[in-house]
Amino acid sequence: MQDKPDDHRLFLVSIGVVLFSILAVMTFILNISQIAFYFFAILAIALGFYLSRSLSNEGKAQKPERRKGR
Q1: How far, CA to CA in Å, does 58 sit from each of 10, 33, 36, 48, 55?
Q2: Across residues 28-50, what is the average pLDDT?
Q3: Residue 23 to residue 43: CA distance in whole angstroms
Q4: CA–CA gap between residue 54 and residue 4 (Å, rounded)
Q5: Rounded to an integer, what is the distance from CA 57 to the centroid of its chain?
Q6: Which of 16, 20, 33, 62 has the smallest count of CB within 10 Å of its CB?
Q7: 3-state secondary structure (DSSP) of residue 65
């Protein structure tokens, strides 16, 4: 099965969500900068919403419509 270009992009976005979430937690724990914490947290949340919306739309596009039989 050949991967679509969107699969590669969505995989990179999911890695970004994890990376920015870890950075947000680390900046919070280490109390480095409050601005950096909010930046990483908002970026992780935004990427998460983008990822969930993209996966939801992809699932709808792949489902064939079912016909009701008698």
Answers
A1: 11, 37, 33, 15, 5
A2: 95
A3: 10
A4: 14
A5: 13
A6: 62
A7: coil
Tokens linked to 9: 């992009």
- Are the C-beta atoms of 10 and 50 separated by less than 8 Å? no
Whether residue 14 contacts residue 48, with contact meaning beta carbons closer than 8 Å, is answered with no
Q: Which amino acid is at 40?
A: F
Cβ 20 vs Cβ 44: under 8 Å: yes
- 33 contacts: CB under 8 Å, gap ≥ 6: 27
Question: Which residues neighbour 26 within 8 Å (Cβ) at sequence distance 6 or greater?
Answer: 32
Q: How confident is the model at residue 69, as a pLDDT? A: 64
- The whole-chain average pLDDT of the chain stands at 86
CB atoms within 10 A of CB 65: 4
- CA dist 23 and 44 (Å) reads 9
